[in-house]
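Quick check before the chapter quiz. The format below is the same one you will see on the exam, so make sure you can read both the input and the output lines.
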Amino acid sequence: MLCLTAGQAGILIWNSVSFQALCGIVYIYDKARLLRFWFGLKPIVLFFKPETVEVVLSSNALLEKTFVYEFLAPWFKQGLITSSGLKWKKRRRLLTPAFHFRILDNFLPVIDSHARYLADKLRGEVGSASFDLVPYITLCSLDILCETAMGKYVGAQKRDTPYVKALNAASHLFGTRFMKPWLWPEFIFSMTSEGRTFKECTNAMDAFTRSVIRERKTYIMSELKSGVGMEEAFSTDNFGAKRKKAFLDLLLSEHLSDPKFTEEDITEEVNTFMFAGHDTTAVGMSWALYLIGQNPMVQKKCQEELEEVFGDDYSRSLTLDDVKNLKYIECVLKESQRLYPSLPYIGRESSSDITVNGYTIPSGTNCMIFTYMLHRDSEVFPDPEKFDPDRFLPENSAGRHPFAYVPFSAGPRNCIGQRFAMMEQKVVLAHVLQNYEIKSLVPRDQLQLTAEMVLRSYNGILIQITPRRHSSS
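Here is the expected output.
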């Protein structure tokens, strides 16, 4: 195993330059299969080959998240991302049914509505020489998450709201702290302006979430006291109008059935869902549209698939069958996540000694899956820099190492919301591509990638759009 001492590697700050430098080091030491380096004062073992990644992600000795996730504890407390041991297992078992296809069907009208609004809003950029796509996609994703998670319409795409500002600021500050090792100790971070702002933002979001929970619980309890059944009570909003169940409703239902699952537990999981879902999904959609805008033939095939699914009726709402039938667009999204995974690395900490490729990884070691480079393994993905959605056709995926491609992690602690994320991304791409031809303006070799907690383009994603039809989606 290659060991980079502090003198050799220095303190790696994960900005654009050092991220690319680390990629280069991995290429050089490809045959070593493992890499150890220092990040601040933390020794990290980097994994970027399928057989070593499998050991890490499937091992029961590596169920704990790495130290970075401790930065989220003041916000999430013991939510699904930050909890461990028996509490994590119980919470995971409880939440998994919330992401079953039958439940996701309830979320589809909300996703469809906000994606449709995004397509309309983009008309304001028709004729622009260029614009950054990312803010538009991010606000759309926030609208979707607020309504599916909390049943609360916030109108992020229409106006600035305190909750949206706080969520964006907290997400940015989390990434900033990650890249500055001197801010890792909580007692130092809490005394800085960044730490104070982070606390203000998380307190504001926590208060908003709690108020939504109390408001919803009060309404449900009043309905139950009036003799309305549980299912009927949850099928209406706080003013009695019909609506689909939100993630919060599923948690409240559990709370009312089992008081051991408290309002505090609900708050933890709603906050976790909001943070984990908005940035990763928004960045994933943005990268997919960027790559589509770089590849006219892929764009044409996506639009042909949409025409097959919708015919001439672009005004109708998407159904779950429509989403399932967008098979090529799903391949596009998967290939996009291969090249530009929303999470360029996944962290774990070993709770006991493990052996990988003949090397002993001691208990307490911080292990990082370098997803970005794992997905560029030429042994698995020939011509790895080529954007080729056909890689993910069933006949081309057969026999591929199951841990060669892990955009949503894998093993026991994989992403619980990956079906939700894929559905959201398909619907948003469908509405954008139904309405516009996209042209990406920055060649791939000129991108400046920066990896905070998600993989971004330093200068955003600049595109041009041309209308495909005059009517709204």
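If your answer matched, good. The two ends are 54 Å apart (CA to CA).
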